[in-house]
Design a protein that fits this description.
Length: 483
């Protein structure tokens, strides 16, 4: 048997590493070439129960003081920077994210921990002016921010390190013990992060990791009666199903989208084309805010489309470990087949493929070529659903009002981008577009880790970013004092 690239300690339950789960082990294989990346424990409901009990007991012990939590967060940030290449390699191998992009993710994870440490230092309640009403006369009152309880963290495959960081770092800062279930396709970097945190002195039970499938580990974790808070990033269908299964739990969702980009005639279309050629295809389009639906004014459409297609055709596809690769494999062969089917449907409905549109078989693996389609109807899947692949669509418009309406015509609402030089149109877009974020003169794929990040409608019900996640992972407790 071929030796795996990574020898992992296993999953973490109550401060102890376990090499085998309730269901045995499973293999993690590289999406690009199928090589063995790691062998990982296959957990089950019994493992989840033990992990949640350990977390509940840790909360009761209250033996992870704020000063220690801050130290761990700051040291984790520094260690992630020191070991950036190790983590980037894990990300690239397990997810097929090009290595140069994986390095960016590793650097962002370090920043996420740094932001969480800063927020942990200033986490506080406030004084309540009780004497402002007759009922409060003679009373002194203040609030405390207290941990909400045991946090269940369920993370996706596309950002296997930084989106884990966005769940673990705020939980540590808030004083909440956490049980993590990383994506079964990409658990390696999450386990390496857990190993790093454990080595920094996180007490037993405060950090637990149970690896396994969503239908076994994920469901058992989200519906456990001792879990107070679920933070989930993934598909809309799975996320809202978890809400239905756990109606009495705070279930916070960061879900998908089919992010629109509007390029008005007055906008800097050259910059928009350059950025869209990256934003639509980074990590093969497998991002919740990947630029997907591009609406461009007819007066500049020919020039914009020509520039975009030229840049997209210049993207290099191939091995994620190649320093020159821009786009590599999708997470599975099934996703590649889905891209082919969706492109075929769009063409049959009247769409025209301007570039790409098919899988390319390379010596080491298979990559779906970056694709631009124009002229498909609004009902085509590539237009009305979340592609989550390397496909962008082009729609021409004459009226800015109509472009806003078409962008809003979606069950999703995560982030939207608008390029315009007219302040009136920028303000109109900010007011009209029903999205969690409206980015003026920027593509919708832009995200800074400290920003409030999240969406509306089928895109979710929360805002991530350490400050905002910590607030949701704590509750307000009122204290009154009276002589």
């Amino acid at each position: 048997m071929t030796e795996p690239r990574f020898a992992l300690p296993g999953m973490l339950v109550d401060g102890a590493w376990e090499s085998v789960g309730e269901k045995g082990q499973f293999e993690v294989r590289a999406p690009y070439d199928g090589s063995l990346v790691a062998a990982v424990p296959a957990g089950g409901p019994a493992d989840v129960d033990r992990a949640v009990i350990a977390a509940r007991n840790a909360l009761a012990r209250d033996d992870f003081a704020r000063t220690d939590r801050i130290r761990v967060l700051e040291q984790a940030s520094a260690a992630l920077n020191d070991r950036r290449e190790d983590f980037a390699t894990a990300i690239a191998l397990e997810s097929a994210k090009p290595i140069k992009t994986a390095r960016v993710e590793a650097a962002r994870a370090a920043e996420t921990f740094a932001f969480a440490a800063a927020e942990a230092r200033r986490l506080a309640g406030e004084v309540v002016p009780m004497d402002a009403s007759p009922a409060g006369a003679g009373k002194t009152a203040f609030t405390l921010r207290v941990p909400v309880g045991v946090v269940a963290a369920i993370s996706p495959f596309n950002f296997p390190l930084n989106l884990v960081a966005h769940k673990l770092a705020p939980a540590i800062a808030a004083g909440c013990p956490v049980v993590l279930k990383p994506a079964s396709q990409t658990p390696v970097s999450a386990l390496l992060l857990a190993e790093l945190l454990h080595g920094l002195g996180v007490p037993a039970g405060w950090l637990n990791v149970v690896t396994g499938g969503g239908g076994t580990v994920g469901d058992a974790l989200a519906t456990h009666p001792d879990v107070a808070y679920v933070t989930f990033t993934g598909s809309s269908e799975v996320g809202w199903a978890l809400v239905a299964k756990a109606p009495r739990t705070k279930v916070r969702l960061e879900l998908g989208s089919n992010s629109p980009l509007i390029v008005d005639a007055s906008g800097d279309w050259e910059t928009a084309a350059a950025k869209a050629s990256v934003a639509g295809f980074s990590h093969a389009g497998q991002s919740c805010i990947s630029t997907q639906r591009i609406f461009v004014h007819e007066d500049i459409a020919d020039d914009f489309v020509s520039a975009l297609v030229t840049r997209v055709e210049g993207l290099r596809v191939g091995d994620p470990m190649d320093e020159h690769t821009d786009v590599s494999s999708l997470i599975s062969a099934g996703e590649t087949e889905r891209m082919e089917q969706w492109v075929k449907e769009a063409v049959e409905a009247g769409g025209k493929v301007l570039t790409g549109g098919e899988a390319e078989h390379l010596p080491g693996g298979v990559v779906f070529r970056p694709t631009v389609i124009e002229g498909m109807p609004a009902t085509a899947k590539v237009q009305c659903e979340e592609v989550f692949g390397p496909i962008v669509t082009i729609t021409r418009f004459t009226s800015f009002d109509d472009a806003l309406a078409q962008a809003n015509d979606s069950r999703y609402g995560l982030q939207a981008g608008v390029y315009t030089a007219e302040i009136a149109k920028a303000l109109q877009a900010a007011k009209t577009l029903s999205f969690g974020g409206v980015l003026i003169n920027e593509v919708p794929t832009s995200r800074s880790d400290q920003q409030p990040y999240g969406g509306v409608r089928d895109s979710g019900n929360t805002r991530e970013g350490p400050a905002y996640a910590i607030e949701e992972m704590t509750e307000i407790r009122l204290i009154t004092l009276q002589p």
